[in-house]
Amino acid sequence: METHKMVLERVALLVLAVLVLAGCETTQQPQRTTGRIGVVVVDAGHGGDDRGARPVFGHPEKALALDTSRRLTNALRQRGFKVVNTRKGDYFVPLQNRVNVSNRIRRSDAVFVSVHYNWARRPGADGVEVFYNNSPMAQRMAVEVTNSLGRVNPSGVHRSARPGNFFVLRENRRPAILVEGGFLSNAADNRFIQKNANRQRIADAIADGILRASGGRMPETPVPEASESIAVEAVDSR
């Protein structure tokens, strides 16, 4: 017959086992956003010595991604979102630093968007491509952005939005997407992307997709400045 003391000891061991097992869980799970998006972390891919994809002609990916990210930043602000940038100039930012910017934002309505352009050995590969991490909001953003870009890029969409295992997605605690706005290795895509007016169209399409993912409405309340509610570490790696 068990004594009261023995029962208490068994309960204590059970609680300890549960705590140990919980502590062993290391998979990075994105935090759930509220139904609305208020803050967008815009990540311009590559930079500095990392030139990114080689174009058929014209500017390399790092310059195109930065220009598109600047245009996207303005487009998002015009739509009422607060924006935080991981890279504002031609310098390289380590992937972990990019993720840190996103993970340190202390708001539940923040998301992450990484801007890139694609490359393939096969010159015929074209069109847009969007990846997302393990988050329902990220999937919703990816689908909406894919649809928006498909209406802008002459090559259209040949690939559905799908999960991606990129570092900036996998290690991100926020809903995160990675946008490939077209193939620089494709003559037609590259010709389209190299034009300023078309990169503006790409930026506007991404912003419109994010807005629709957020319910198609502006944030209900003004979003505070970064110094008031967002903790972000400088990531200038020059």
Compile the SSE list and pairings.
Blueprint: H1 4-23, E1 39-44, H2 61-78, E2 82-85, H3 95-103, E3 110-118, E4 129-132, H4 136-150, E5 162-163, H5 167-170, E6 176-183, H6 187-193, H7 196-213, H8 226-229
Parallel strand pairs: 1-2, 1-3, 3-6, 4-5
Antiparallel strand pairs: 4-6
Helix pairs in contact: 2-7, 4-7
Summarize the structure.
This protein has 238 residues and is an alpha/beta fold. The protein contains 8 helices and 6 strands; from the N terminus they run αβαβαββαβαβααα. The chain has one domain: Zn-dependent exopeptidases (Aminopeptidase, 3-Layer(aba) Sandwich), CATH 3.40.630.40.
Task: Characterise the protein shown here.
There is one protein chain. The chain has 238 residues and is an alpha/beta fold. The protein has eight helices and six strands, in the order αβαβαββαβαβααα. It has a six-stranded mixed sheet with strand order 2-1-3-6-4-5, with helices on both faces. Strand 4, helix 4 (136-150) and strand 5 (162-163) form a beta-alpha-beta unit.
